[in-house]
Amino acid sequence: MRIHKLCIVALLLAPNIAFAQNCESIKSGIGATRKTQNVGRQFVGNSLDFIQERGWIQFAVYSDFAPYSFEKEGKLTGIDIDLGITIAKYLGIKARFYATEAGENVDADLRFNIWKGRLVSGPIANVMLHIPYNRELGCRNEHVVLNGQYFNEQIAIAYSAEDYTEEGPVPAYFRYDKVGVENDSISDFYLSGVANGQLIPNMVRYKSTNEAMEALKAGDIKAVMGPLAQLEYELNTKTKIHTPPLPGLAVGQWTLGIAVRHNWRPLSYSVDDAIRQAVEDGTMETIFKKYGLSYTPPKW
């Protein structure tokens, strides 16, 4: 659910073009029905100078989202946590984090955590991690700057090595074999539409990709379709993974980056510099290897 269900499906079906282009064709604002109104407070968040003077930067990460951000022995850990620490070190300050549940869509997450805040109470982040870098999302959320691309994610299939001894399965196999997907995810929508719904009887929906992988390892299903990194993190000696062609899926991969409130652009640029350095000097690849994952750098 951290990939935001219907919203991310819409994002992936749209061209992933740099959104510095004209946004006239993209509806903006809350609900994308009208231009956003001025927020109640003139300023939300903090400037780069203020952050460096106080000595720490606050990141928002998604909760219970292994391998990106999750609790282990009472502490937040994961790829996005390590990235936040790397960014803070580049800025010469400390990193602080808070975990947030995924909202109805990415737009709601940006509204609650970056540019406005929740109606009653709750923290505001200087930077939110793991945000799709996408023209439509950027145009639709005019109070936010999307930046800091740090890796490319793609859809893959994990499978039982005992059930598929010669080659990994492709969607057509799931007319006969059970496959797990995260409920209302990209994989769920894609497989539901294959062959006019013929795969639906063998699709088993789970609350998360991690839960689907646990079912695979327990032998309840034969395969799981989902984001590559999440599948890789849960692999064991009896499971394998591959990335076969997926006919009909307009975009099987996407770029992840960061979000900062629009009036703090110098902060966004500095964070982008930190991330670019981490990608170029191999730090990002090292972070991914720490969690047993392959790394695909962004294409700038």
Mind explaining what this structure looks like?
- The protein folds into two domains: 148 residues, Periplasmic binding protein-like II (D-Maltodextrin-Binding Protein, domain 2); 89 residues, D-Maltodextrin-Binding Protein, domain 2 (3-Layer(aba) Sandwich), CATH 3.40.190.
- A hairpin with a 2-residue loop joins strand 2 and strand 3.
- About 8% of the residues have low confidence.
- The strands form two sheets. Strands 1, 4, 5, 6, 7, 8, 9, 10 and 11 form a nine-stranded mixed β-sheet that branches. Strands 2-3 form a two-stranded antiparallel sheet.
- Helix 3 crosses helix 9.
- It has 300 residues and is of the alpha/beta class.
- 40% of the residues are buried.
- The longest helix has 16 residues.
- It contains ten helices and eleven strands.
- It is globular and about 60 Å long.
- Outline type: globular
Unreliable stretches covering 5 or more consecutive residues: 9-18, 30-42
Helix content: 25-40%
Calculate the mean pLDDT score and round it.
89
State the gist of this model.
The chain has 300 residues and is an alpha/beta fold.
Feature tags:
300 residues, alpha/beta, D-Maltodextrin-Binding Protein, domain 2, 9-stranded mixed beta sheet, two-stranded antiparallel ribbon, 10 helices
List the helices and strands and how they pair.
Layout: H1 5-13, H2 48-54, E1 56-62, E2 70-72, E3 75-77, H3 79-91, E4 94-100, H4 106-115, E5 127-132, H5 135-140, E6 144-160, E7 179-182, H6 186-193, E8 203-206, H7 209-217, E9 223-227, H8 228-233, E10 239-242, E11 253-261, H9 265-280, H10 283-290
Parallel strand pairs: 1-4, 1-5, 7-8, 7-9
Antiparallel strand pairs: 2-3, 5-11, 6-9, 6-10, 6-11
Helix pairs in contact: 3-9
